[in-house]
Design brief:
Strand content: under 5%
Number of strands: 0
Number of helices: 16
CATH architecture of the largest domain: Up-down Bundle
CATH superfamily of the largest domain: MFS general substrate transporter like domains
Radius of gyration: 21 Å
Helix content: over 70%
């Protein structure tokens, strides 16, 4: 499973880091068209993650994952022959829709094949491997971007790696789907307000994604005197931090109680990181800005590994064994929401309000920290299995 994750992550690293260059220089699209297409693909995740989670429970996650990786092989390969904006829009949405389906299918596969006490640890290992593979993919994309003729290697390399992932999935054992209790209704995950509350609170705790990748760099570039070359280096540091400490941070998150406590602590670290960045709004001191931003990245990276591990623990712990794909796919919405809504919301907040904007994000993190444990407890009570009753 780690080999599958490595192949997938290298492919995503190649494509995501090189796609803008490929579509602008080789296909001839402008920046607006590329941005709209990628945004539309991201929006499709709100439907894809839940739908493919339900399908994984119906047909089996192993079979679904093979089909998805095979379809992605074709989809990424077709990018090599895209020549118009219409073709690009149709293909990027279709590929994005399929790509976001691999998450719940992969999670359900872990749930089927791995004992409950080892699932979070394996997910942590897979995330560390993902960061390694993604970094390798960026290097491959950089080589392909050296020449106009080599650009076609960006989609073709990704397609080859998706095919490799599909072949690796076939090497895994096929576990029969668990029987569905009498009276269970599909799409129950997105109709349960208590489970949705856990997802919503987790969306706030996952703000570290947007802060590290978007909001903090924008703030540092436009409102501090931090040398610009340091910003990419800080992101590299964040990646290395996740690789080194994600597995360690996952300890104790294999139960709902432990995951809830870890989620609460992640909110404290998130609030602390935002408060440290807020200090840079109080003055224009080069040394203060540099020290504050570097310290904030360290603090936010700690929040990231904690929140990621807690998210897996909550997702697996709150998902019924017979509907893991559905519930894991629904829980993925907390990261999808942050990826889609977060950049505009949080960046607009700090750019408009500065110091108070950063404190606003910190306050939201503290509120979420206070709410996550009781919300997880209520959701767990709601999802507790009840004896099946015979139907006439």
């Amino acid at each position: 499973m780690i080999a599958i994750r490595l192949a997938e992550s290298i492919g995503k690293g190649v494509f995501l880091s090189g796609s803008v260059v490929y579509f602008t220089l080789r296909v001839g699209l402008d920046a607006t068209q590329v941005g709209l297409g990628l945004s539309a693909a991201g929006l499709s995740a709100f439907i894809s993650s839940v739908v493919f989670g339900v399908i994984a429970d119906r047909v089996g996650p192993r079979r679904l994952l093979i089909m998805l990786f095979a379809a992605l092989t074709v989809g990424f390969g077709l990018y090599a022959v895209v020549g118009t904006a219409i073709q690009f829009f149709a293909l990027v949405v279709a590929v994005g829709f399929l790509e976001y389906g691999t998450g719940p299918a992969n999670g359900a596969l872990v749930g089927n094949l791995v004992p409950a006490e080892e699932r979070v640890k394996l997910k942590a290992m897979m995330r560390s491997v993902f960061n390694i593979g993604f970094s390798i993919g960026i290097g491959v994309a950089a080589v392909a971007a050296l020449s106009q003729r080599l650009l076609v290697l960006i989609p073709l390399t990704t397609a080859a790696l998706m095919a490799c992932a599909a072949l690796l999935v076939t090497r895994l054992p096929d576990v029969p789907s668990r029987p569905v209790p009498v009276g269970f209704k599909r799409f129950a995950a997105v109709r349960d307000p208590r489970f949705l509350a856990v997802i919503g609170i987790s969306s706030v705790l996952a703000s570290h994604v947007t802060v590290i990748l978007v909001t903090m760099p924008l703030w540092a570039l436009n409102h501090t005197s931090l040398p610009h070359f340091l910003i990419p280096l800080l992101l590299i540091f964040n990646t290395a931090f996740v690789i080194l400490f994600q597995v360690r941070a996952s300890r104790g998150a294999d139960t709902v109680e432990g995951a809830g406590r870890l989620a609460r602590r992640s909110g404290y670290w998130l609030a602390g990181g935002c408060a440290v960045i807020a200090v840079t709004a109080l003055g224009d001191n080069d040394m203060l800005a540099s020290v504050a931003i570097v310290a904030a990245v360290l603090i936010l990276s700690t929040a990231e590994v904690m929140q990621a591990a807690s998210g897996w623990g909550l997702a697996f712990g709150l998902a019924p064994e017979h509907a893991q794909g559905e519930y894991l796919g629904a829980f993925d919405l907390h990261v999808i929401t942050q990826n889609v809504v977060g950049p505009a919301l949080l960046s607009g907040l700090v750019i408009t309000f500065g110091f108070w904007g950063w404190l606003g994000i910190a306050a939201a993190a503290l509120v979420a920290s206070a709410l996550i444990i009781p919300a997880a407890h209520r959701s767990r009570v709601t999802l507790a299995p009840e004896p099946a009753t015979a139907t006439g």
